[in-house]
From TrEMBL, chain A:
Positions of transmembrane segments: 7-31, 75-99, 106-128, 171-193, 214-235, 274-295
Biological process per Gene Ontology, one example term: transmembrane transport
Organism listed in the record: Antarctobacter heliothermus
Listed PANTHER family: ABC TRANSPORTER PERMEASE PROTEIN MG189-RELATED-RELATED, SN-GLYCEROL-3-PHOSPHATE TRANSPORT SYSTEM PERMEASE PROTEIN UGPE
Protein name: sn-glycerol-3-phosphate transport system permease protein UgpE
Localisation: Cell inner membrane; Cell membrane
InterPro entries linked to this entry: MetI-like, MetI-like_sf
UniProt KW keywords: Cell inner membrane, Cell membrane, Membrane, Transmembrane, Transmembrane helix, Transport
TrEMBL record, chain B:
Domain ABC transporter: 4-234
PANTHER family according to UniProt: MALTODEXTRIN IMPORT ATP-BINDING PROTEIN MSMX, OSMOPROTECTIVE COMPOUNDS UPTAKE ATP-BINDING PROTEIN GGTA
Keywords: ATP-binding, Nucleotide-binding, Transport
Family: Belongs to the ABC transporter superfamily.
GO cellular component assignments: ATP-binding cassette (ABC) transporter complex, substrate-binding subunit-containing
Xref: Pfam families: ABC_tran, OB_MalK
Listed name of the protein: sn-glycerol 3-phosphate transport system ATP-binding protein
Recorded GO MF terms: ABC-type transporter activity; ATP binding; ATP hydrolysis activity
């Protein structure tokens, strides 16, 4: 039963507005700070009304943080994550749902377990792999004695090396192979009636054709939802780029943002340029917000799954 | 030429066998209806012909070629599904032409063919619509068109009419028969509806619990049901069954305390003393004065059918129904004599339920002769 009384209405609305304030006030303060001069930002008591320096500060932050490069990099990262994820997750879910084979459940559980092992948990081994992506194979060769055999017979020392540090590949790959997308697809694929699969079989469509011409067009809304989520996730990446990127040419926006806020080490105790930092924050926030607004309709439809 | 021959086909899921050795031969161009209650294995059999279900043992050949290991697309079958199974994101034209697209037919040729087939089933105005914008009957037509366009040698129908309302069902039934007559492809139609079965079939296959009970023309199946099961399944209103003992001395079957159904003397002689089940169709029973009939029933109520009435009588602890064009007005509880023509008395073995009649062995033999 939903009760509608004036008191309850007031209480619920109070709660909702409090929540809204908690979300909106910080963003407002960012806008305020980003539009003032440095003395105004540092003034006590704080000035709570926007100033007139917004454009100036945005320009300064853009130049100071080299956002032109960083944005390109971040865009490549986010797009790479989105595309990689859409493709990989679709194929994995396709394999899990539509093929009746013995490895079906083991694979499903292996994918499932990765949910409990996000990048932050496995960051050290992932770094090790990124430093030399072929090291697992090297280990296999070493353990099985094959590298010794090759060395003994040909005199060639086997040392496989594929360094992914400071590269787009290294940035993107570890973020692609996660379970969320697979599950989203799986749940959708499970709602596809068996008869549709059989009709495609009768029409002579092979598995890949079925995936391409029937499943994918049907899961467009799901893909839009997944793409939105993954774009935001990719865009906001901080820890992983911070770890593997040392070359500024590959730096990403979120990491660069933290460098806009000077600390003792970088400025030797100068007053931090808070107005630029806040302007930078605004700039970095915009693309994910734009994507979410643009994709909103699809996004909701994809998650509630009613459009069939 | 696409005759289908099914030899000792079995299907099991794990240890559960659901189809127990089915033999069936379907002639080229024939319309065969497989009928039975849900869970009798009829759909499984159809899906094995289509190649959607693996065959556990036995052999299926289409047009003389064993298809056990062939993919569905290589078998030359087209199938109409119960829920139509249209591709929701494609237009009607896209749905109908998909098989041709997969087969890499040229665009122009394909469009021409789609238009032609769509016209033949009355869909030409709807080619650009999505399946979601069509009514049930129209979707059914799309499903049919999608099957027709492939010019299949074998047409498979998996209860295609069960999602339609009664009137549309009859219409589509006629449509299917017309299409069959025009195309002449061998057709296998699965249903649980005996009206569909009787009206559509050249021959009917009645299945029960994973085996075939009887194969025959609708007339054969109706007039000479091979078992109590078939007799009870086919015919509406359904047959009356009574248990009794054959007495050769009076050339009759004695029922309960004071009932007696006369049968031919030589039949009675052959079956003397045997415990039997007799089957009487409601239209073969007639009402006479009390005491004049073979048995005396107590009137319960009558159902008006328009063309006649269905009278319900109580006889001992059974309900007997009589179908008659005569309009009587009995009082509830009134005694009425019931009598049956000996020619129309179906006699079945009391223990096995098999027909005790010369026609009995035909149910299996007929199929095997063709298969060889």
């Amino acid at each position: 039963m939903i009760e509608r009384t004036p008191i309850l209405n007031i209480v619920t609305h109070t709660i909702l507005f409090t929540g809204l304030a908690i979300l909106v006030v910080p963003i407002y303060l960012v806008i305020v700070a980003a539009s003032q001069t440095l003395p105004d930002v540092m003034a006590i008591p704080a000035k709570l009304l926007p100033g007139d320096q917004l454009i100036v500060n945005l320009k300064a932050a853009w130049v100071e943080a080299e956002f032109a490069t960083k944005f390109t990099n971040t865009l490549i990262l986010a797009t790479g994550v989105v595309v990689g994820k859409l493709v990989l997750a679709a194929l994995t879910a396709f394999g899990i749902v539509f093929f009746d084979h013995r490895l079906r459940m083991p694979i499903f559980w292996m994918v499932f377990i990765t949910l409990m092992l996000p990048l932050e948990v496995r960051i050290v081994p992932t770094y090790a792999v990124a430093a030399n992506a072929l090291s697992p194979f090297q280990s296999i060769l070493d353990v099985t004695g094959i590298s010794w055999l090759i060395n003994a017979t040909t005199g060639v020392e086997v040392a496989l090396n594929w360094n992914l540090l400071n590269s787009y590949t290294g940035l993107i790959m570890p973020l692609v192979a996660t379970a969320t997308g697979t599950f989203l697809y799986r749940q959708f694929f499970l709602t596809i009636p068996d008869e549709l699969v059989e009709a495609a079989k009768m029409d002579g469509a092979g598995p890949l054709r079925f995936l391409r011409e029937i499943l994918i067009p049907l899961s467009v809304t799901n893909m839009a939802a997944l793409a939105t989520i993954m774009f935001v996730v990719g865009w906001n990446q901080y820890l992983w780029p911070l770890l593997i990127i040392t070359d500024p040419a590959y730096g990403v926006a979120a990491v660069e943002l933290s460098r806009l806020v000077p600390n003792m080490n970088t400025t030797g105790g100068d007053i931090p340029n808070w107005h630029w930092a806040m302007a930078g924050t605004l700039i970095v926030m915009l693309p994910p917000v734009a994507v979410v607004i643009l994709m909103q309709r699809w996004f909701v439809r994809g998650l509630i799954n009613t459009d069939k | 030429m696409a005759e289908i021959s099914i030899r000792d086909v079995r299907k099991s899921y794990g240890k559960d066998e659901v189809v127990h050795g089915v033999d069936l031969a379907i002639y080229d161009g024939e319309f065969v209806v497989i009928i039975g209650p849900s869970g009798c294995g009829k759909s499984t059999l159809l899906r094995m012909i289509a190649g959607l279900e693996a065959i556990s043992s036995g052999e299926i050949a289409i047009g003389g070629k064993v298809v056990n290991d062939l993919e569905p697309r290589e078998r030359g079958c087209a199938m109409v599904f119960q829920n139509y199974a249209l591709y929701p994101h494609m237009s009607v034209a896209g749905n109908i032409g998909y098989a041709l697209k997969v087969a890499r037919m040229k665009r122009a040729e394909r469009d021409a063919k789609v238009a032609e087939v769509a016209r033949s089933v009355g869909l030409d105005e709807f080619l650009d619509r999505k399946p979601g914008q069509l009514s049930g009957g129209q979707r059914q037509r799309v499903a049919m068109a999608r099957a027709i366009i492939r010019e299949p040698e074998v047409f498979l129908f998996d209860e295609p009419l069960s999602n339609l309302d009664a009137k549309l069902r009859v219409q589509m039934r006629h449509e299917i028969r017309r299409i069959h007559n025009r195309i002449g492809a061998t057709s296998v139609f699965v249903t649980h509806d005996q009206h569909e079965g009787m009206t559509l079939a050249d021959r009917m296959v009645i299945m029960n619990k994973g085996t075939i009970e009887q194969i025959g023309t609708p007339e054969e199946v109706y007039d000479h049901p091979a078992s109590v099961y078939v007799a009870g399944f086919i015919g509406s209103p359904s047959m009356n069954f009574l248990a009794g003992t054959v007495e050769a001395g009076v050339a009759a079957i004695r029922l309960g305390n004071d009932g007696r159904i006369d049968i031919a003397a030589e039949r009675a002689k052959a079956l003397d003393g045997k415990l039997v089940q007799i089957g009487l169709r409601p239209e073969n029973l007639s009402m006479v004065a009390p005491g004049a009939g073979a048995i005396t029933g107590h009137f319960e109520f009558a159902e008006e059918l328009g063309s006649g009435r269905l009278y319900h009588f109580q006889f001992e602890d059974l309900t007997l129904t009589v179908l008659s064009a005569d309009k009587h007005s009995f009082q509830p509880g009134q005694e009425v004599g019931l009598t049956a023509d000996p020619v129309h008395v179906h006699i079945f073995d009391g223990a096995t339920g098999a027909r005790l009649d010369t026609l009995e062995p035909m149910r299996r033999r007929a199929s095997l002769e063709v298969a060889q």
